[in-house]
Amino acid sequence: MAGGEKKIRSDNLKAVVRYIFAKAGSLPRECDLLADHLIEANLKGHDSHGIGMIPAYIAALKVDELKLNASPRLISETGSTLVLDGGLGLGQSIAHDAMAMGIERAKAYGSSIVALHNSHHIGRIGHWAEQCAAAGFVSIHFVNVIAEPVVAPFGGTVARVVTNPISIGIPREGHAAVIVDFATSRLAHGKIRVAYNKGITVPEGTLIDAAGHPTNDPAALFSDPRGAILPFGEHKGWTLAFACEALAGALTGGEAIKGVVTRKAIVNNMLSILIAPNRIGTAPTYFRELEEMITWVQSPAPGADPTVLLPGDPERKTRTERLRDGIPVDPATWAQILSAAGEIGVTSSSLEAAAGL
Ligand code: NAD
Fold first, then answer.
1. Which among 114, 112, 188 has a CA at the least distance from the CA of 150?
2. Closest listed residue to residue 85, CA positions, set 75, 99, 70
3. Rounded distance, CA 243 to CA 85, Å?
4. Nearest CA to ligand 1 atom 5
5. 155-168 burial, b for 16+ CB within 10 Å, e for fewer?
6. Partners of 207 in the beta sheet?
7. Residues 11-50: tens digit of each pLDDT
8. 111 CB less than 6 Å from ligand 1?
9. What is the CATH number of domain 70-185+231-278?
């Protein structure tokens, strides 16, 4: 174990999540959806969206900016399009239910659009693409984030937006779905928190400090005044971050970012588009062209090993390793979880026991 890092089995970590949120007041279904989501994020290597989010959720809960056991409320529907209000409910159950509603509509119409606004943090967006892919749907998800701005627009030197993620789920025949899923910033905010907790630097070109100068010290994002994360791909990442504000923030009937945010809640708005290849008549072409293209792009240069991965491959590899070896949890993250859980009356000893430590 490196530097006091613990390796905890995924089932035990799920038990930790369930224990904390049952104590907070979540019903068993919500505890299960949350535990499955957070631990899947950890298993897939996205620790930024795993158990490390628990302290932020408890902070929002304590000031009543996160509602437990809520359901999405139907605001309007026009055939295949649903507008839903998440009511600041726990995002892992709100988005699950919203996607289930979208899947039902897409089964009926061949495609659907779900405009979900005002949910609390919906975690790893690839999770929702996976839910749609498991039901046979191609899906596209644009998300904006209403929280303290941490990302500078291309050309800017101060934070104006958050990490606005995008995900695309591409089901295949006979293979796991391809899952495109990333923040439009160079690094997800939570990954900078993880680096800060671990006391390590972030790659060059990720951050600027409060004076607008490049830095690889994650502390720049936790100081006052604060620095900012840069968009990925220079102007290209910024254009997608902007599209997330327009599509997920404004078009869903939610909120686009427009100033300093002081509340504890991390609000997500998401525009999801679901398409059933077999319902729009293109399934034979879709599956054939997809497989032939994948064979082509992955064909190695003569004499070389195949090195081209598909989106979703790195996560599957990490998942296999972490299911076998356990999920690494650094001491700072674990201490933050114990401290936050303590604030709602959960003892450290009970969590250590649930974690099998
Ligand atoms: P990332 O930079 O690790 O990129 C992940 C994507 O790139 C995945 O699709 C992955 O399969 C693919 N990928 C990685 N290496 C690859 C390779 N060698 N070949 C082919 N594909 C490869 O992700 P990120 O930007 O750090 O985002 C992490 C997570 O944070 C995502 O799950 C995202 O949804 C989530 N997020 C959520 C919010 C929110 O507000 N809810 C905000 C930002 C990010």
1. 188
2. 75
3. 20
4. 182
5. ebeebbbbbbbbbb
6. 215, 229
7. 999 999 999 999 999 999 999 999 999 999 999 999 999 9
8. no
9. 3.30.1370.60
CA 25–ligand 1 middle distance (angstroms)? 31
**C-beta of 72 in contact with ligand 1 (< 6 A):** no
- Would the CB of 218 count as within 6 Å of ligand 1? no
Which residue's CA is the closest to the ligand 1 atom numbered 15?
A: 314
Decide: 40 in ligand 1 pocket, CB within 6 A: no
In the chain, CATH 3.30.1370.60 sits at 70-185+231-278
Using alpha carbons, select from 242, 214, 57 the residue that is nearest to residue 142. 242
Q: Which two tokens stand for residue 217?
A: 């010290």
Contacts for 44 with CB less than 8 Å, ≥ 6 apart: 124, 126, 315, 316, 318, 319
Residue 320's pLDDT is 98
Domain span(s) for CATH 1.10.1530.10 in the chain: 1-62+326-357
Query: Cβ–Cβ contacts within 10 Å for residue 292, how many?
Result: 10
Can you list the positions of beta strands (E) in 227-284?
A: 228-229, 267-275
Q: Is 315 touching ligand 1 by the criterion CB < 6 Å?
A: yes
CA dist 257 and 234 (Å) reads 20
pLDDT tens, position by position, 255-287 = 999 998 989 999 999 999 999 999 999 999 999
For the beta carbon of residue 46, count every other beta carbon within 10 angstroms: 22
CB neighbourhood size of 35 (10 A): 24
* DSSP-based three-state secondary structure for 258: coil
Distant-in-sequence contacts of 83-87, Cβ < 8 A, 24+ apart: 83/115, 83/117, 83/252, 83/253, 84/114, 84/115, 84/116, 84/117, 85/117, 85/118, 86/116, 86/117, 86/118, 86/119, 86/120, 86/268, 87/118, 87/119
Q: Beta strands 111-120 and 81-85: pairing type?
A: parallel
Overall fold of domain 1-62+326-357: Hypothetical Oxidoreductase Yiak; Chain: A, domain 1 (1.10.1530)
pLDDT tens, residue by residue, 176-219: 999 999 999 999 888 898 899 889 999 999 999 999 999 999 99
